[in-house]
Design goal:
By secondary structure, this protein is mainly alpha-helical. It is built from seven helices and two strands, in the order αββαααααα. Strands 1-2 form a two-stranded antiparallel ribbon.
Length: about 200
């Protein structure tokens, strides 16, 4: 392989793997910081950033398959937890890591099972199921015993409502981005499905 060919191949692999892993890490770190800032009695700023993690996972799953999506989730999990232990409350970091990994792996599993249905079914159903699991695990671990149960359950309900709305809202960007991704050559070969 020529140096130019090696460079092109390396850049393609960087975009196919490290770009989604970096995006995942950024979303989780920012969300773990923003969860400490409530907007009102039932919502924090993290509710508006965290759902993008499901978009990253679903795009990776559609474009590269579940194995690559799991790798991206593991990298995002590892780096984000390490950074969050430095930047956020350790209880939040551990709750977030547990919720994130469980929810992302469920999202990947559900998406893969539904990938051959209409284009919108897999990202919507996997996003909803992942969001429910993420919310239950995160708020149970992060806030149980630290504040009034009514407060953290109210925050969890508000968070879940925003996540469910984002599961619908992010269908349009998913469709647009997967169409762009499908049109580009990838070092990983063709997309795993003919249904973008």
């Amino acid at each position: 392989m020529t140096p130019v060919g090696f460079l092109r191949s390396s850049l393609s692999l960087l975009k196919a793997y490290w770009l989604p892993a970096g995006a995942m890490t950024l979303v989780v770190v920012v969300s773990n910081i923003l969860v400490a800032f409530p907007i009102n009695d039932w919502l924090t700023w993290a509710a508006f950033t965290y759902p993008v993690a499901f978009l990253v996972t679903d795009l990776t799953n559609r474009a590269c398959g579940p194995k690559r999506a799991r790798s991206v989730a593991y990298v995002g999990f590892s780096v984000a937890v390490a950074l969050c232990l430095l930047l956020a409350d350790p209880r939040i970091a551990l709750a977030s890591g547990s919720a994130f990994l469980s929810a992302q792996l469920l999202d990947i599993f559900v998406f893969d099972r539904l990938r051959n249905r209409d284009w919108w079914i897999a990202p919507l159903v996997s996003g909803v199921t992942g969001s429910v699991l993420d919310t239950v695990i995160f708020f149970s671990l992060a806030f149980y015993g630290t504040q009034s149960p009514t407060l953290w359950m109210t925050l969890a309900a508000g968070d879940l409502m925003v996540k469910l709305a984002f599961a619908l809202f992010l269908l349009a960007p998913f469709r647009m981005l997967i169409t762009v991704i499908a049109a580009r050559p990838t070092p990983l070969g063709p997309l795993p499905t003919a249904h973008p």
